[in-house]
Amino acid sequence: MKYKDTIQQATDKAAQVNAFLKHHLLAAHPTNYTVGYEYISKQHRELCQAIDQKISANIRLDDFIIAELYNRYLLQEQQQQEQLLQEVSGMVTRLSGY
Fold first, then answer.
1. Among residues of the chain, what percentage have pLDDT more than 90?
2. Residue 17 CB neighbour total at 10 angstroms
């Protein structure tokens, strides 16, 4: 499991993510929210640096920039996790057949 936040931690982060999205005039759809959550969590150093650089350069964060950041820093990681889950699920299914 990627996130190990308590309910209170997740609630606090959700409020911070919503404030981040609102501040940058971003809709709270899954891609924007995921990037925002990762940024607020500070668990992905390269992503945080990229966002901080854009903010420092007064580059407005929009859906296209957020999607590009998601694709560059998070998509491959998510695909690897999904593949691992599928492999584990397959093993469980095969083992339960015996």
1. 69
2. 23
Q: Mean of the per-residue pLDDT values for the chain?
A: 87
What the block records as the tokens of 31 is 């891609």
Cα R_g (the chain), whole angstroms = 16
Backbone phi, psi, residue 25, to 5°:
55, 45
Tell me the per-residue pLDDT of 69-84, one tens digit each, with 9 for 90 and over.
999 999 876 655 555 5
Give the position of tokens 């998509």: 75
Amino acid 76 reads Q
Q: Taking Cα atoms as reference points, which of 19, 63, 69 lies closest to residue 40?
A: 19
**pLDDT tops 90 at residue 23:** yes
Q: What whole-number distance in Å separates Cα of residue 59 and Cα of residue 56?
A: 8
Q: Are 43 and 35 in contact (CB under 8 A)?
A: no
